[in-house]
From TrEMBL:
Presence of keyword Flavoprotein: no
Protein name: Tripartite-type tricarboxylate transporter, receptor component TctC
CDD domains: PBP2_Bug_TTT
Keywords, comma-separated and alphabetical: Receptor, Signal
Protein origin, superkingdom: Bacteria
Cleavable signal peptide: 1-23
Recorded family membership: Belongs to the UPF0065 (bug) family.
Keyword Signal assigned: yes
Organism: Paracoccus sediminis
Length: 324
């Protein structure tokens, strides 16, 4: 028995000694960066912009792999199954990290149990926009119309459970109004129908619709941010309108499998946030309407937990289901 104890202790000591060595040598191979969506979207742009800026000093190639499917669940499940060695990470959105867990009971991953956050990289506020011909000049006008004509206005979204869908649900809950949710197969089709007058209202990412607003193809009535946008200084925040709890941002974050060695985690987080602070990356995201956060892992982890709790409440109150 004593010899077994000695052998076990020796094995444990060897493993403990090995982890610092592995961390010290990191990175020694390519790092796969999973994007659980198709190329060209916000998660893909975030991954490619940041990894390109990281590449010069990182020491090994960072390879972006798109793994689309099931609103990000397929790629996220692959991350959850990966070894927590720092050689597989993920860039994904609010939907993957916070809304899917709040909306679905059948997810093949749990962001709280299977993942740990490296940083919330960027965010952009959602804005309240309408078709150009809708006879309203302000958010107050729209709310009055919704109360006068309940369950008649068509609210376009990029899909069930998207941040723009849930922002509309939150808006109805906060203002005591109702509308008809019309889910599309992405933000582009929803925006096209809003411009064409086939839908009435939508919540969209500021960066995605700024050009349409400037060209008069949409009306922007309010911004779901803490402060007014410097690009649209005349558009009020919901808080200024007396509607609390309507700060809503779409965000992109870096995550890794649970159990990452602390030294490796620190190396990754430092490299990612350092890249986000470079002038070139700041300019790129600024032009896209994104604000850089680049927060610490502990802050990012707490933020995601708060987001899951927040959207769980909205989904429960609105009786929202994935099949809606």
């Amino acid at each position: 028995m004593f010899m077994k104890f000695v052998a076990a202790a020796s094995c444990a000591a060897s493993l403990a000694a090995a982890f610092p060595a592995l961390a010290q040598d990191y990175p020694a191979d390519n790092v796969t960066v999973i994007v659980p969506f198709a190329p060209g979207g916000a998660s893909d742009t975030t991954a490619r912009t940041v990894t390109q800026a990281m590449q010069a000093d990182f020491g090994q190639p960072l390879v972006v792999e798109n793994k689309p499917g099931a609103n990000g669940a397929l790629g996220a499940a692959e991350l959850a199954r990966a070894r927590p060695d720092g050689y597989t990470i993920m860039v994904a959105s609010i939907g993957t990290y916070a809304i899917n867990p709040a909306l679905r009971d059948d997810l093949p991953y749990d962001p709280r149990e299977d993942m740990e956050m490296l940083t919330v990289a960027v965010r952009t506020p959602n804005v309240l926009v309408t078709r150009p011909t809708l006879d309203v000049a302000s958010a107050e006008d729209l709310i009055a119309m919704l109360k006068d004509q309940p369950d008649t206005m068509l609210f376009a979204s990029s899909g069930v459970g998207s941040s723009d869908h849930l922002t509309a649900e939150l808006f109805w809950q906060r203002t005591g109004t109702t509308g008809i949710h019309v889910p599309y197969s992405g933000g582009g089709p929803a925006q096209t129908d809003l411009i064409g007058g086939h839908a009435d209202v939508s919540f969209q990412n500021l960066g995605a619709v700024a050009g349409f607003v400037r060209e008069g193809q949409m009306k922007m009535l309010a911004i779901a941010a803490a402060e007014r946008s410097p690009d649209f200084p005349d558009v009020p925040t919901f808080k200024e309108l007396g509607i609390d709890g309507m700060e809503v941002y779409s965000w992109q974050a870096f995550g890794a499998p649970k159990g990452l060695d602390p030294a490796v985690k620190d190396s990754l987080a430092t490299a990612i946030t350092g890249a986000l602070q470079t002038p070139e990356v700041q300019e790129t995201f600024g032009n896209l309407g994104f604000e850089i956060l680049a927060n610490a892992p502990a802050e990012a982890d707490a933020f995601v937990a708060d987001e899951i709790a927040r959207w769980s409440e909205v989904i429960e109150t609105g009786n929202i289901t994935p099949e809606e």
